Amino acid sequence: MTQAIPRRSGEWILVVEDEPRLREALAELLVRMASDFGEVVVAASGEDALALCRDASPSVAFLDIRLPGMSGLQLAEVIADETRIVFVTAHQEFAVDAFEQGAVDYLLKPVTAERLQACLDRLRRRDRAAAGELQKFLRAFSAPSPPTYLRWLTASAGRRTYLIEVDDIVYLKSDSKYTRLVCRDSQHLIEESLKKIVGRLDPERFRQIHRSTVVNLREVLLVERDDTATGTGLVKFRNHPEVVRISAPYLRELRMFLV
């Protein structure tokens, strides 16, 4: 629940946290330890916090990163020009070092009095961060991470479990609810459908050539069209003698891709 704020020129602290217990605990610590920063005001969502900031910006905002609706990162981008930002989260992610070295601080839940004191001391020592520097950190943190694709698959046979490097796979073929992995020197059957695996493979490396077959493009030697009028073809590999069929919808796309 938000607390109404009259129009003011003095300093105040904003706490935005959707979990009531954590919100009140942090607010109580700040009332005791940060009276020189002004009144402590709380909000349960980014939208509520924005409403509180319409008349006056807080000097410091303690923002939970994961909030319903508008995230703490999105809120920070709106208010950062006038406000020093401290992110509060239960997840220690890749940007921690950037925040620690930059203009914003970063607190892990549950926030301890000792860690909060260090944060407040830092805020007291520093001037307000330049908007450009803060925006740089925000962009680095909120930019989408590059997709990560499968590097390994495991296949079990009796009491043995094989670790298969995706780069060694020549092609994958659907086999009912299983998938057959055909490698240069071996074959394996795994209990996972081809449909589920395809979405986790690098599309620049693996292409579907049939509704039941996906090939490793680095292993493809050539694509050959049939003499018939079916529009289908054959795929031959560099390091494997087997030949697999390519259906008509995929033939033109794959031939153009390999040119």
From TrEMBL:
Domain Response regulatory: residue ranges: 12-124
Keywords: DNA-binding, Phosphoprotein, Two-component regulatory system
Modified residues (4-aspartylphosphate): 64
SUPFAM superfamilies xrefs: CheY-like
Pfam families: LytTR (PF04397), Response_reg (PF00072)
Domain named HTH LytTR-type: residues: 153-227
Superkingdom per UniProt: Bacteria
InterPro entries: CheY-like_superfamily, LytTR_DNA-bd_dom, Sig_transdc_resp-reg_receiver, WalR-like
PROSITE patterns, sorted: HTH_LYTTR, RESPONSE_REGULATORY
SMART domains listed in its UniProt record: LytTR, REC
PANTHER family: REGULATOR OF RPOS, RESPONSE REGULATOR RECEIVER
Protein name, per record: LytTR family DNA-binding domain-containing protein
Upper classification of the organism: Bacteria, Pseudomonadati, Pseudomonadota, Gammaproteobacteria, Lysobacterales
